[in-house]
Specification:
The protein is α+β, with helices and mostly antiparallel strands. It has 2 domains: 108 residues, no CATH class; 286 residues, Major capsid protein gp5 (Major capsid protein gp5 fold). The chain has 8 helices and 16 strands. Strands 1, 2, 5, 13, 14 and 15 form a 6-stranded mixed beta sheet that branches. About 8% of the residues have low confidence.
Length: 411
């Protein structure tokens, strides 16, 4: 008997135990449970053998087939809870190591991995529900690493002798000795930070797979998306990504002389636009408290004035209103009116975002057993920081430029 035949025989014996209990409409006895677990240990041992055989049954073999996986996230979580019920059958899709649906060799361990495509889907929804993460420059970190080092040109000025960190060209006369120069480089290091989520669900909620999937998948996707965006804007770099507001790359435009508190003037907008190094790619990110200020902005013309903010298609322009030709995107994470970060003009394509891959998701069936609750855990390892070391001094002029521009406080 080869490994595959032996593996199938043990799977069949497990299924016989389950079928017998169902037919007799009773719980699993202690001896049956013990035998089921012994068989599972033997199955896991066979699965780990080096002989290159395919131990996974083809699809269409009923409950014993493991290649089909779970149809939904809620269905899998229900199977996890069922595995914790005394005497209940254990879904084989939770038990087989090579199955895409997850594993737990010993059900009493109480831990199950969430099916890979569901954790991938959770990360995709995180990017979809967030605003900024999808606009950043993505740089994934390989499986066997927890950080990445990036070589970049160390350029902080465009003055002669400083471009690209020191490259310089010379106008030379005939037969003159050529003069050399070289660029300077710096090294950026992105070390993964950990974003976590933990959810307790009552057994009553777990009765409805659709509701469970909606609440957990939608809720954590939105929360992770929110926290990622918040970190990209105002992260301290300690235990979380470095946000643009705390970066040396940020350009802060001074308020106008005599400007009223909690106000935004046309001159502010014009000055912010002029200080952005990639204005053709940047967008305006604002707190909703800023909108009334934009609608009342004007520039004096003679004894009257001309409005500055005139959205194409009216107030409900689609998908976003525009200011000086660039989209206006309201965000909760932007600061309240009058403080730094209430209005930002930025190109987040110059922000580097790195992660380990999909969100690591798992469920435990015993952590809150006495409270009639189950626990679900989500971990996302990620890191981000601006690609610019600091603002850049132009060749001519004294005002620095950057892909990230904010307005100074107007208290």
């Amino acid at each position: 008997m080869n490994l595959k035949e032996l593996w199938n025989k043990k799977i069949d014996e497990q299924q016989t135990i389950v079928d017998r209990c169902k037919a007799e409409k009773r719980d699993v006895t202690n001896s049956e449970k013990k035998r089921f677990e012994e068989l599972q240990e033997e199955i896991d041992f066979l699965q780990d053998q080096e002989e290159p055989v395919n131990l996974i049954r083809p699809t269409g073999t009923g409950n014993r087939g493991v290649t089909q996986g779970f149809k939904s996230f809620g269905e899998q979580l229900q199977s996890v809870i069922q595995a914790a019920t005394p005497g209940a059958s254990i879904d084989s899709r939770l038990s087989i190591k090579n199955a895409a649906s997850g594993l737990s060799g010993v059900p009493s361990d109480g831990g199950f991995l969430v099916q890979t495509d569901f954790s991938t889907k959770l990360l995709q929804r995180t990017y979809e529900t967030g605003i900024l993460a999808g606009k950043c420059f993505k740089m994934p970190i390989s499986t066997n690493a927890n950080s990445i080092k990036i070589n970049a040109v160390d350029e902080t000025s465009r003055a002669t002798g400083s471009r690209l960190g020191g490259i310089r060209g010379y106008w030379q006369g005939e037969a003159k000795e050529l003069e050399g120069s070289k660029p300077e480089f710096r090294q950026m290091e992105l070390s993964l930070k950990k974003l976590t989520g933990l959810c307790y669900a009552t057994d009553e909620l777990l009765q409805d797979a659709a509701a469970l999937e909606s609440i957990i998948m939608k809720g954590f996707a939105e929360e992770f998306g929110f926290l990622v965006d918040d970190a990209i804007i105002r992260g301290t770099g300690v235990g979380k990504p470095l946000g643009i507001l705390n970066s040396d790359a940020l350009v802060t435009v001074a308020k106008e002389g005599g400007q009223a508190a909690k106000s935004i003037l046309a001159e502010n907008i014009i000055n912010m636009y002029s200080r952005c190094s990639s204005e053709s790619k940047a967008n305006w990110y604002i707190n909703r408290d800023v909108l009334p200020q934009l609608f009342t902005m004007s520039l004096p013309v003679g004894t009257g004035g001309a409005p500055i903010f005139m959205p194409a298609g009216g107030i409900s322009g689609s998908p976003y209103n525009t200011l000086l030709g660039r989209s206006i995107i309201p965000m909760e994470q932007c600061s309240t009116l009058g403080t730094v970060g209430d209005i930002i003009f930025a190109d987040f394509g110059e922000y580097i975002w790195s992660d380990k891959g999909d969100i690591d998701a798992a469920a435990s069936i015993h952590v809150r057993f006495l409270y009639d609750e189950q626990v679900f855990r989500f971990i996302y390892r990620c890191e981000g920081q601006p690609g610019w070391k600091s603002a850049l001094t132009p060749y001519k002029g004294t005002n620095t430029i950057s892909p990230f521009v904010a307005l100074a406080a107007r208290a």
